[in-house]
Structure prediction request, 264 residues.
Amino acid sequence: MKIELARKTALVTGSTQGIGLAIATGLAESGARVGINGRTVARVQRAIDKIKDGLPAAELYAVVADVTTDDGAASAVDACAGLDILINNLGIFGAKPALEVTDADWRAYFEANVLSAIRLTRAFLPGMTERGWGRVQYIASDSAIAVPAEMIHYGMTKTALLAVSRGFAKAAAGTGVTVNSVIAGPTHTEGVEEFVYGLVGRELPWEEAQREFMKQHRPQSLLQRLIEPEEIAHMVVYLSSPLASATTGGALRVDGGYVDSILP
Prediction:
């Protein structure tokens, strides 16, 4: 399957590490011009350098902005004129007992994980529909469907993204623009390593810690291992391409069979 994204411009929010960095790399590998987003010049430049190490010809541009704020989102919009592909990847997560999640926590998670994506979609979708082509995606999570007891505030935001995605797909109906969400399963990133060690203890080597985490906290996974970020990126790159022109309003799973359901 040949995916060709030359002459397409993309923005991946939160793309200095983890899933976002893998998505940005995959889009660049397919020929897209990709905006690398982070809150500091140093982090963005490190990510650009890392991608360039493996893809010297990659066409990248820096989007240094905190897109969870009004000013940061406006700065990102200014940096991404004529955007074709918007990947709303940015998200925060963390474990906390349900009854200890404060009002401030609920607001912070909603602002970062949901409203930031809504704000950027609202800014870029009109231009895409006017030009008759575009791709908008939201990186959701298995936690949207199987809400973890240890982080219901995070699960709530990912459930919300499924509704946001479906709603904006309806707003773009018949325009040539597709809007989808990607349901990522438990994924191996630096942040998740810290999360895993926090739950199972730091005395175990990583491979044993990962197995123990999956056994204790994600036993329903059919993959029985953490997903690699590149495996999420493959789905995102496909959905960003002309090959996915008939896929819209969907919630597509890259969850390793974690959710025990045929449909989301």
In short: The chain has two domains: 9-186+228-254, 188-226. The chain has a mean pLDDT of 96.
